[in-house]
Design goal:
Layout: E1 2-7, H1 11-22, E2 27-31, H2 56-69, E3 73-76, E4 79-86, E5 89-94, E6 98-106, E7 110-112, E8 128-129, H3 132-135, E9 143-147, H4 151-160, E10 166-170, H5 180-188, E11 192-195, E12 198-205, E13 209-216, E14 222-226, E15 229-232, E16 236-238, E17 269-271, H6 283-303
Parallel strand pairs: 1-2, 1-6, 2-3, 6-17, 8-15, 9-10, 9-15, 10-11
Antiparallel strand pairs: 4-5, 5-6, 7-16, 12-13, 13-14
Helix pairs in contact: 1-2, 1-6, 4-5
Amino acid sequence: MYDVIIIGGGPAGLTAGIYASRARLKALLLEGMIVGGQMMTTDIIENYPGFSQITGAELSAIVDGQAKGFGLTVETGEVTGLEVAGGQELVAKTAERDYRAKAIIICTGTEYRKLGIPGEAEFTGRGVSYCATCDGAFFKDSNIVVVGGGDSALTEALFLTKFAKEITIIHRRDALRATKIYQERAFANPKIDFLWSSVVEEIKGNQTVESVLVKNVTSGEMREVPTEGVFMFIGITPKTAFLKGLVELDESGYILVDEENLQTSVDGIFAAGDVRKKLLRQVATAVGDGATAAFAVEKYLEERGIT
């Protein structure tokens, strides 16, 4: 029996682990893949206070070491469901075993949204990617396509210029949504071109990606664009499928919480970071959430006399 189980090892989960462990709570962090979350797939972080530039992997390693140094237990396990067992007991279920705790903090974050078009699933890993830092080096001297117009699309496109010969950013609107500094850098980069008011309808190829079929949303005109790689950055969806029917979610699947304590609609279950409904999703705001949630858990346990 743990005092608190933290589900998800991104910046919110790791920070919750630091604060919970410093409070001498018996804390377990469960991460389904790799500790660090989306930080691990970020090339350069330049807006986290205290670091003018640091890679996501470096920052993840620092925070992971800090949390473990305070006594946080970290295990690999994909949580498939939560259960209220009665009394003050909560259960986090994985394929391997069940874990029991007096409180739970959900920090599962988000994942990249998929287009759901023909060829996307078939060519994933064979030219279709959702992570430039993971796969960019495979596209040295290639012509590639980036789909999207937000911060992720532009930062990943800029990273890909280290490898690719030419990058075409395909955006469904006639203007970008990204932060102005990213727009300035993208427009100034000679390797980056733009295909405006356009959407990808199909990804084509044989063994690997060879082209994309693109539709102009204004004229309806279709054109085939040769490419060796397609990188998708069209938004994110919260990783909350395992929670449906248990805690209250908004229409997009984000967890609704009490803004003061970050408690969900279920007593003893809290949520922090990108997985909850909020205005801004950044490492800095995830860290703040993690600290708040862990502190709220400590007070929750004290007030109920179950520490």
